[in-house]
Amino acid sequence: MEFDNIPKLLPDFKQAILETLTMVGVSATISVIIGGLLGVWLFTSGHGQIFANRLVHRVLGTAVSFMRSFPFVILMIVVMPLTRLIVGTSFGPFAASVSLSIAGSFYFARLVEQNLKEVSRGVVEAAQAMGASPVTIIFKVLLSEARSGLVLSITILLIGLLEASAAAGMIGGGGIGDLGIRYGHQRYMVDVMIAVVVILTILVVVIQSAGNFLSAKLNKR
C-alpha cells in the first residue's frame, strides 16, 4: 500500500490535530469544573452525607443517568440552537465543544460520585468530630483522599471526549474525525484513514500513560 496522499495533506492533518486538541481541551476543562461540582453535589446530597437531601439526590441522579445515556450525535443536533447562541455558529471545533462539554459534564459527574464513595466514611466522621466545616470536608478530605482516582477519571474523560470529537466530525465539528470521513471514507483514501487511526491511537496511549503515571504518584496507599 502506498501513502502518497499523506504528504499532500500534511497541512490538513496539522489543522485537524489542532482542532481536535481544541475541542478536547476546551470541553475537558469545562467538564471537569461543572461535572466536578455536579458530582460533589450528587455525592454530598446522598443518604447520610453532609448535605443529605433525598429529593435533590434523586433529581440529580436521574438527570445524570438520562444525559449519560443520550446519544452524542443526537445531542449535538438537539443543542444546535444553544450552540449558535453561545458561539455564533453550529460548525467548527468551538461549536462542537458546547455539546462535548454538556455530555462530558454529566459523564464526569458520575465518575466523581463513584470516586468519592470510595473514601472511607471514618475519615469524614473524624473530620466532622474535629469541627471541620462542610467546605473543608469537601476539599481537604473528600477530594484530597480521592485525588488518585479522580486523576484516572479525568483520564477516562479525556479519552471519551477524544472519541466523541471524532464523531463530531460527522456533522461539521472538524478535527481528525472529519479528516478521516472526508478523505479516508468519502474519497477512498485508505492511507489517510490508517493515518487517522494511528494518530488517535497515539493520543489515547499518551493520555492513558500520563494519567496512570500521575495517579500512581498521588496514590497514598
Automatic annotation (TrEMBL):
Instruction: Give me the segments passing through the membrane.
Output: 20-43, 55-79, 85-109, 150-172, 192-214
Location in or out of the cell: Cell membrane
Q: How does it sit in the membrane?
A: Multi-pass membrane protein
Query: What's any one GO cellular component for it?
Result: plasma membrane
Q: Name one GO biological process term.
A: D-methionine transmembrane transport
Which keywords does the record carry? Cell membrane, Membrane, Transmembrane, Transmembrane helix, Transport
> Cell cycle among the record's keywords?
no
Q: Where is the signal peptide?
A: none
Primary location class: membrane
Record-annotated ABC transmembrane type-1 domain positions: 17-211
Task: Give the CDD domains listed for this entry.
Answer: TM_PBP2
Stated family: Belongs to the binding-protein-dependent transport system permease family. CysTW subfamily.
Q: What is this protein called?
A: Methionine import system permease protein MetP
Phylogenetic lineage: Bacteria, Pseudomonadati, Pseudomonadota, Betaproteobacteria, Neisseriales
